[in-house]
C-alpha cells in the first residue's frame, strides 16, 4: 500500500509525539474498504434478522388465525351434527307418539271385539247348558203349521 506525502508527514509527526512520551492523538478515521464492508454486512445482517423476526411473527399470526378458523369450522360442524341429531330425535319422538296412538286405538278395537266375543261365548254356553239339561237335548219349539193343537 502506498502512502501519500501528506499521510507520511502525519505518520512521522505521530511517531515523534509518541517517542517524546506524549499520548497519541486520535487518528482521523480512514476510509478502509474492509471496515466499510464489515459495517455494511452488519447492517445487512441486522436487517435480515429483523425481516426473519417479522416473518416468524407473521407465520405465528397466520397459524393462530388458521387454528382459530379451523376451531370455528369444527365447532360449526359439531353444532350442525348436534342439530341434525336433535332433528332426528324429534322426528323419532313424534313418530313414536303417533305409533303409540295408533296402537292404543287398535287395542281399544281389539278390546271391544273381545267384549263382543265374550258376550257371544256366554250366550253359547247358556244354549249349551239348556241343551244338556233339557229333554232329549233338543229344544222343543212349537210347530205353527199344525192347527188346533196346543203346544203348552
Quick overview of this protein structure:
The chain is 77% helix and 0% strand. The protein has helices at 5-20, 33-133.
Tell me what you see in this structure.
By secondary structure, the chain is mainly α. It has a domain at 31-132. The protein contains two helices and no strands. The termini are far apart. The mean pLDDT is 85.
Structural class based on helices, strands and sheet pairing: mainly alpha
How many helices? The count is 2
Shape: rod-shaped
Averaged pLDDT, please? 85
Uncertain residue ranges: none
The biggest sheet, with number of strands, parallel, antiparallel or mixed sense and barrel status, is: none
The count of strands amounts to: 0
Order of helices and strands: HH
Share of helix, binned: over 70%
What gyration radius follows from the Cα positions, in whole Å? 60 Å
Gap from first CA to last CA? 169 Å
Q: How much of the polypeptide forms β-strand, as a percent range?
A: under 5%
Provide keyphrases for this structure.
rod-shaped; mainly alpha
Helix-strand layout with pairing:
Elements: H1 5-20, H2 33-133
Amino acid at each position: 500500500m502506498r502512502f501519500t506525502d501528506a499521510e507520511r508527514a502525519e505518520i512521522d509527526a505521530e511517531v515523534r509525539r509518541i517517542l517524546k512520551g506524549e499520548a497519541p492523538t486520535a487518528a482521523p478515521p480512514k476510509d478502509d474498504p474492509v471496515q466499510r464492508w464489515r459495517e455494511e454486512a452488519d447492517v445487512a445482517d441486522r436487517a435480515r434478522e429483523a425481516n426473519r423476526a417479522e416473518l416468524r411473527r407473521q407465520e405465528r399470526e397466520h397459524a393462530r388465525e388458521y387454528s382459530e378458523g379451523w376451531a370455528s369450522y369444527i365447532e360449526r360442524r359439531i353444532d350442525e351434527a348436534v342439530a341434525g341429531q336433535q332433528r332426528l330425535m324429534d322426528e323419532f319422538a313424534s313418530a313414536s307418539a303417533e305409533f303409540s296412538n295408533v296402537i292404543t286405538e287398535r287395542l281399544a278395537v281389539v278390546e271391544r271385539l273381545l267384549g263382543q266375543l265374550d258376550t257371544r261365548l256366554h250366550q253359547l254356553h247358556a244354549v249349551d247348558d239348556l241343551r244338556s239339561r233339557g229333554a232329549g237335548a233338543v229344544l222343543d219349539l212349537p210347530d205353527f203349521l199344525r192347527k188346533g193343537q196346543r203346544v203348552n
